[in-house]
Design the sequence.
């Protein structure tokens, strides 16, 4: 993969005990480490502007996750572990770089990975910044603020709900705007709020198109189901890793020690992670876009924001701390759409910890 980087960003190939991948770096080699975790259908490229704007003395580190960009394509995600493969990869990268701990920053799927990292490696975290993170209970197929699974097989989540036309366009490396499901149209309609278009949209499009594809990658494998919408998660790939049946015990977050402070930043007009997500089967079924919807009792829209807030409130009740900040007129990528405002809050958290 060859995507131009910004001045101040250095790309290296790093091999840990678990994964060989492309890692982007910024700042001094001996700086305070800040580990950036990208979202789905993207790569480390999405973090470059935030990395080069870090305060003096900080070291930005952004890997391409397993299954994305410059990561070894033979390394697959075991979705039955939820996001644990991806969390373990981050810990192994810190080991390879000789780092005991870091500030963690995650977007979307990256936030979902950080929920798991908090459970598995709390002692390695200085602070947590989440930009439009996925719900701790996963994506799709669950309901209520406690993440109750709609069906035992997880129907309505995982690879089976991914638009097949979008996958075909990714495989074809389609850079056009000819189809509603071309990645150019997807990112410009869902990743940020129209009419906003990032200055480096071509690099961000290349990043999205660099995702690894196939039944063991993206979108992953799926299983036929007797439950609406007749598809259940398989066992491989990032989408299946987000299925609620694989997410594990979220309440483990409440007993971790130490409990890093969590900064949660989201856009008020996010169409991907919301209580009425436009890529959630419950919301689409309720709107009549997916036939056969069994109704709000069986399969309501997943209340993703409500779930995240409920978890963080329990986290705080058990001795943690969090802050929720909402950017108005902002979609799914607050750090790209409003970087100065994002950095104002993000940098304040970094400095408060180090002081």
Sequence:
């Amino acid at each position: 993969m060859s995507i131009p980087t910004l001045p101040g960003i250095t790309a290296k190939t790093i091999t840990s005990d678990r994964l060989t991948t492309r890692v982007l770096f910024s700042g001094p080699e001996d700086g305070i480490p800040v580990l950036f975790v990208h979202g789905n259908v993207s790569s480390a490229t999405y973090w470059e502007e935030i990395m080069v704007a870090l305060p003096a003395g900080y070291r930005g580190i952004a890997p391409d996750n397993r299954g994305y960009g410059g990561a070894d394509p033979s390394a697959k995600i075991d979705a039955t572990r939820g996001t644990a493969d991806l969390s373990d990869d981050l810990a192994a990268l810190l080991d390879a770089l000789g780092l005991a701990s870091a500030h963690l920053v995650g977007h979307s799927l990256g936030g979902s990975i950080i929920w798991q990292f908090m459970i598995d490696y709390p002692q390695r975290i200085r602070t947590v910044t989440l930009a439009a993170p996925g719900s701790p209970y996963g994506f799709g197929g669950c309901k209520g603020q406690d993440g109750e699974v709609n069906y035992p097989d997880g129907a309505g989540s995982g690879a089976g709900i991914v638009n097949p036309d979008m996958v075909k366009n990714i495989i074809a490396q389609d850079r056009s705007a000819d189809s509603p499901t071309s990645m150019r149209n997807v990112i410009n309609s869902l990743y940020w709020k129209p009419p906003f278009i990032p200055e480096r949209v071509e690099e961000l499009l290349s990043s999205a198109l660099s995702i690894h594809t196939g039944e063991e990658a993206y979108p992953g494998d799926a299983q036929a189901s007797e439950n609406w919408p007749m598809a259940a998660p398989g066992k491989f790939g990032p989408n299946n890793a987000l299925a609620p049946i694989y997410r594990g015990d979220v309440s483990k977050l409440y007993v971790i020690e130490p409990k890093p402070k969590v900064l949660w930043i989201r856009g008020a007009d996010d169409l991907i992670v919301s209580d009425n997500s436009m890529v959630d089967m419950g919301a689409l079924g309720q709107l009549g876009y997916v036939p056969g919807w069994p109704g709000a009792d069986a399969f309501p829209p997943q209340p993703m924001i409500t779930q995240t807030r409920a978890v963080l409130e329990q986290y705080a009740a058990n001795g943690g701390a969090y802050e929720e900040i909402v950017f108005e007129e902002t979609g799914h990528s607050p750090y790209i759409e409003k970087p100065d405002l994002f950095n104002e809050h993000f940098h304040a958290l970094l400095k408060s910890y180090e002081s």
